[in-house]
Amino acid sequence: MNDEPLKIKISIADRVYPLTVAYSQEEALRSASKKIDTMIHQFEENYAVRDKQDVLAMCALQFASQNEQRTIDTSENYNKAIERLIKLDEALDRILSK
């Protein structure tokens, strides 16, 4: 794997941003850029919003809320898994103590 920094240009909302990134980050950044542009296009089509700043703010809110929801879901799943492990441990203790 190449550890040298890579110079790329990312386009978001019709603006180009030159970045220097690790080789391993390039694909994720390009994918994120495409997702942002797709979301911008959807907001512009579905709502009467033409100001790029408003559209970008709506995109940021959408991505942040998705991230928060994943965090909540992961936390709930983690807590459920811990509860199940505790119950399994207690059941094993009962079986092994006989």
Give a brief description.
The protein is α+β, with helices and mostly antiparallel strands and 98 residues long.
Main beta sheet strand tally, sense and closure: 2 strands, antiparallel
Please indicate the count of domains.
1
The run of helices and strands is: EEHH
**Backbone CA Rg:** 22 Å
Total strands = 2
Class inferred from helices and paired strands: alpha+beta
- Uncertain stretches of 5 or more adjacent residues: none
Mean pLDDT: 90
Distance between the termini: 54 Å
Oligomer: single chain
Which percent range fits the helix content?
55-70%
Q: What order do the strands of the largest sheet run in, or round the barrel if closed?
A: 1-2
Outline the structure in words.
InterPro entries: Cell_div_ZapA-like, Cell_div_ZapA-like_sf. Helices cover 67% and strands 16% of the residues. It has 98 residues and is α+β, with helices and mostly antiparallel strands. The chain has one domain. α1 (26-46) packs across α2. The longest helix is centred in the last third of the chain and has 45 residues, at 52-96.
Task: Give a topology summary.
Layout: E1 5-12, E2 15-22, H1 26-46, H2 52-96
Antiparallel strand pairs: 1-2
Helix pairs in contact: 1-2
Keywords: Cell cycle, Cell division
Organism: Myroides indicus
Pfam families: ZapA
